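Thread: adenosine-5'-triphosphate complex, take 2
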Amino acid sequence: MDTTPLLQVAGVSLEYVAGSRVVRATHRVSFDLHAGERLVLLGPSGCGKSSLLKAMGGFLAPREGHITLGGAPVTGPGPDRVMVFQEFDQLPPWKTVKHNVMFPLLASGRAGRAEAEQRALRVLQQVGLAHFADAHPHMLSGGMKQRVAIARALAMQPRILLMDEPFAALDALTRRRMQQELLALWAQVRCSLVFVTHSIEEALVVGHRIVLLSPHPGRVRAELHAHEFDLDSVGSPAFQAQAQRIHHLLFEETAQPETAAA
Ligand SMILES: Nc1ncnc2c1ncn2[C@@H]1O[C@H](COP(=O)(O)OP(=O)(O)OP(=O)(O)O)[C@@H](O)[C@H]1O
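Output below.
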C-alpha cells in the first residue's frame, strides 16, 4: 500500500447554520485515507459521520481545517468521488437499471453512450444483476437496489467510494450477504473506500482501519486497525475482544481521546 495519503482530513470542523443557530457537527477531526484502503467512520448517531462524507464529497466546506485529495484542496464535488446512500430511493424510478448505471457516466461526460452501456453491463454482471438490466427499480428488492447503486458508483471508476450506511436498512441476512459481496467487489476493483456505519461488527468486517468518533460534535476518539477481521472471524475471541474494546471506547464518556493500534 502506498504510504502517501490519497485523502487527508486535517483539523476539520463542520458546521450548519440554521437561521441564527449554528450546529457544530464535527470538531477538529483529522485522519488520512490511503490508496486502496477501506476506512470506516464509526460513531453514535449525530456525531457527524454523514457530514464528514459530504465534506469529502465536496458538498460541505469545512468551517476550519482542510481536506486534500492527491495533495490538492477539495473545493467541490467531482467524478473522482462517488457516494452510495442508505436510502433505497436513490435510483430514479423511471430509468431502467442499465440506464440508472449509465446516467452519471453520460452526465459527467466520462463516457459516450456505447462505452457507458458497455461499462454498465460489465458492472451489473459483477454485482450479479446482468439479468435485470432492463428492469425498473420498483421491480427489485432493497438489496438489489443497493447493488444497482453500488454498480452505478463503480461504473464511474472513482478514486474514492463514499458509502453512507449503505446496508443499514436491510434485514440482517441480506446485510451480511451485501458485506460479503462488497468485500469481493473491492478485491476486484481495489478502490479506496470510506464506509460509514454505527455497527461495531460491520466496522470490523468492512474496515482495514476504523476511525472512532465521539458523540456530537464528533471528535476522533481513537483509530484502530481491523485488517485481520472478516466475516469468517465474527464471533472469534479476537473479534469479540476488539468489539468489546470499541464498545468501551464509544460508551465510556470519561475516556480521553487516544490513538490505539490493535
Ligand atoms: N442540514 C443540516 N442542517 C442542520 N443541522 C444538520 C444538518 N445535517 C446534519 N445536521 C446536524 O449535524 C450533526 C451531525 O449530523 P450527521 O448526520 O453528520 O451525523 P451522523 O453521525 O451521520 O448521524 P446518523 O448516524 O444518525 O446518520 C447532528 O447534530 C445533525 O443534527
